[in-house]
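Input record, target 12 of the design panel.
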């Protein structure tokens, strides 16, 4: 009986998490981020504001909903970076903002015990920080990678450990 009630609670938590993610995505208006046309510094400022609000909600909504919303927003921002036109200042600011979001998504994935996803997000944060030529973002990404690397390496090595001869 205890297992049934425990499983019931887990299902409710899962629904709450999905609901929290959907509510947060709506509140952040991530669908309003342009994916075509010309991007300006004011567009990037709005992106930065949404990322800051998402970071502020982390403690309230938890890691899984944050990861869901951050991943959806990263997809949208990647589309914007690939399909919009912008100048060099906007390019650097956009890549720096995406690096920040990747870093937050990496920590959310880490908290959700998705260590490989965490490592991939942190690697993406470093790449974007380099593209944005932002030394502070690069330092944050390197620091995040240093924290995550042993765990990700252990997870990645598990399938190979069983294939080794005795």
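The sequence produced for target 12 reads:
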């Amino acid at each position: 009986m205890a297992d049934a009630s425990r499983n019931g609670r887990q299902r409710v938590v899962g629904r709450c998490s999905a609901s929290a993610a959907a509510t947060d995505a709506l509140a952040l208006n991530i669908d309003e981020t342009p994916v075509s046309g010309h991007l300006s510094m004011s567009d990037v400022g709005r992106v930065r504001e949404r990322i800051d609000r998402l970071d502020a909600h982390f403690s309230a909504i938890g890691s899984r909903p944050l990861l869901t919303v951050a991943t959806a927003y990263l997809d949208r921002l990647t589309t914007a970076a690939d399909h919009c036109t912008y100048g060099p200042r906007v390019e650097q600011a956009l890549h720096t903002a995406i690096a920040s979001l990747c870093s937050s998504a990496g920590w959310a994935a880490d908290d959700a015990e998705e260590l490989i996803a965490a490592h991939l997000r942190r690697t993406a944060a470093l790449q974007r920080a380099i593209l944005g030529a932002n030394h502070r973002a690069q330092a944050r990404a390197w620091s995040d990678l240093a924290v995550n690397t042993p765990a990700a390496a252990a997870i990645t090595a598990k399938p190979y450990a069983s294939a080794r001869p005795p």
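Residues 2-30+38-148 form one domain.
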